[in-house]
Amino acid sequence: MTEFFQLPPEERAQYLTKDHSKQVKVFNYYQKYEDIGKVTMWSETFSHPWHPTEDFSHLLPTNPPQYREVFAEYARAIGVLFDRLLSLISRGLGLDKDCLKRRIGEKPGLNTQANYYPACPDPELTMGMPDHNDLGSITVLLQLEGVTGLQVIKDGKWLTVDPVPDAFVINLADQTQVLSNGKFKSVGHRAVTNKLLPRLSLGMFYNPNYDTVIGPIEDLIDEEHPTKYRKYGFKEYMEEFYRQEGKRRRVKEAFELQR
């Protein structure tokens, strides 16, 4: 993935688009919030689908030459990891091991995002990526060793998550919070820049597809734990995400049941 961002700008530019419906794309994050004005994003993102067993390599760039083969092998291994994570989370909720995978759906939405953050001359004036919550179910993140930048919010404070050699960051996202009826929390996070070194992270996303109906799993609901969210289609969830453009997005909150 590092070699892709080392390609000449004009070669990467063939994938540059603002149309997020395109399967393979390069885009730059830019965010404007009504309450804080403009925030300059110092990053470039390369995104495309992935699948652990189906052939998707024809969608990928032919340059770097080894990219298709290497990424297909990586996707197979990550698919095994996702199966294990889904099983562990289900068991952690007291459910059968396949419950969460069934509820997310037989044909999940699988995509990857490689985020490249060049060294920035003035990090105080930029962000690598604004604070946000992932919209899907689970994210497996690989961080380039030796360069920090990922931060998570806890008790109102931003904490740095340093890269650990040969380890992933596992991020539970919005749909896992809803399916678990709030027992698991979607983690707010952001990326900051630095003056000295570029940073690269690779996120693998496991999401429902647009036709999947999401809501708290019935076995997790009782008198002491009433339903916190209404049911919705994942397409509706994404439409709400885009509707909140220009604001600090609070998408989950739009589906909470009022008590």
Describe this structure in words.
This protein has 259 residues and is α+β, with helices and mostly antiparallel strands. The protein has a single domain (2-255), classed as Jelly Rolls. 22% of the residues lie in helices and 26% in strands. It is built from six helices and 15 strands. It has helices spanning 2-5, 9-12, 67-92, 99-104, 174-179, 234-243; strands at 25-27, 31-33, 37-41, 44-49, 109-117, 126-127, 129-132, 138-143, 150-154, 157-160, 169-172, 189-191, 199-207, 213-214, 232-233. The strands form four sheets. A six-stranded antiparallel beta sheet has the order 1-4-5-13-8-11. Strands 7-12-9-10 form a four-stranded antiparallel beta sheet, with no helix packed on it. Strand 2 (31-33) and strand 3 form a beta hairpin. The longest helix has 26 residues, at 67-92. The chain is globular. The N and C termini lie far apart (47 Å). Belongs to the iron/ascorbate-dependent oxidoreductase family. InterPro entries: IPNS-like_FE2OG_OXY, IPNS-like_sf, Oxoglu/Fe-dep_dioxygenase_dom, Plant_2OG-oxidoreductases.
Q: Just name the CATH architecture.
A: Sandwich
Regions with pLDDT < 50 over 5+ consecutive residues? 30-36
Question: What percent of the residues sit in helical stretches (DSSP H or I)?
Answer: 10-25%
Helix run count: 6
- The helix-and-strand class reads alpha+beta
Task: List the secondary-structure elements in sequence, H or E.
Answer: HHEEEEHHEEEEEEEHEEEEH
Kindly report the average pLDDT value. Answer: 92
CATH class descriptor name: Mainly Beta
Strand content: 25-35%
Strand order of the largest sheet: 1-4-5-13-8-11
Number of domains: 1
Straight-line distance between termini: 47 Å
CATH evolutionary superfamily: B-lactam Antibiotic, Isopenicillin N Synthase, Chain
Shape: globular
Kindly identify the CATH topology. Answer: Jelly Rolls
